Amino acid sequence: MRRSARVLGILCTVGALWGAEVQGQQAPLASFGVQAGAIAPQTTLPDGSSHASGAAVGATGMVWPLRYLGARLSVAYGKTAGVHGEEFSAAAAHDPKVWLYSAEVAVRYPFEGGGVVWFPYLSAGPGGKSYRWAIDRPRIGDSALALTYGGGVDIRPRGLRGVGVVVDVRNYRSRYMWHGLGVRATVPDYEAHGPMLNDLLVTAGITISR
User: Fold this and answer.
1) How does DSSP classify residue 26?
2) DSSP codes joined into one string, 142-189
3) Which run of H or E residues covers position 14?
């Protein structure tokens, strides 16, 4: 997350130096995008196993009822193959296909310059992570709550009539509760105890704005 925040800070600084602030009517009110990229799991599980990075595809919608404040909905799909540690791991053997999804609050700061309208943004909010386990027949799955935070930059050349490009980097935090690695406690606390995962999602794609 520190690297993501540093990159976004650089983007904001460059924008401030390169372009003048966009007038309110020029900033897009809503956009829909499709993206491709990679999911990169960052966590080693307690049994020594982990999950490899995999390709990802997704879709995103953003609305801006206020000039600087809006909402972001996103969903991404990919596969993160299991990687065994020193011993066999049930978690690694399942080679899950995963879905990441979220509903976030977003803030932005629009700029314009050189025939381009663009804005860096940050967003965070609740979501989830769903699994489809590879070795189960028929395929079954499980889901966990997640928290996501990150940001990116949306770039719209004026001559393309609302078509632009977006680059986004974010982290998803969720708890792993399966294959003997997590426990759901009963009385008195009813809390879930299991390893916390961090999944880095990096995507780029096309947006259509109005």
Assistant:
1) G
2) EEEEEEEEEEEEEEEEGGGTTEEEEEEEEEEEEE---TTS-EE--TTT
3) helix 2-18
What is the pTM (predicted TM-score) of this model? Answer: 0.83
CA distance linking residue 136 with residue 152, whole number of Å:
37
pLDDT tens, residue by residue, 123-172: 999 999 999 988 765 668 899 999 999 999 999 988 887 899 999 999 99
Closest to 179 in 3D by CA, of 134, 149, 138: 134
Tell me the C-alpha to C-alpha distance, in Å, between residue 85 and each of 39, 96, 195, 204: 20, 17, 16, 32
Among 131, 137, 121, residue whose Cα is nearest residue 170: 121
Q: For residue 114, give the DSSP letter.
A: T
Smallest CA-to-CA distance from 206 within 102, 57, 23 is with 57
Angle (CA) 132-138-141 rounded to 5° is 25
CA-wise closest residue to 146 among 107, 104, 175: 175
Where is average pLDDT lowest: 12-21, 67-76, 111-120? 12-21
- Of residues 93, 100, 172, the one with CA closest to residue 131: 100
Tokens of 106: 């977003």
Give the per-residue SS3 of 34-101. Answer: EEEEEEEECCCCCCCCEECCEEEEEEEEEECCCCCEEEEEEEEEEECCEECCCCCCHHHHCCCEEEEE
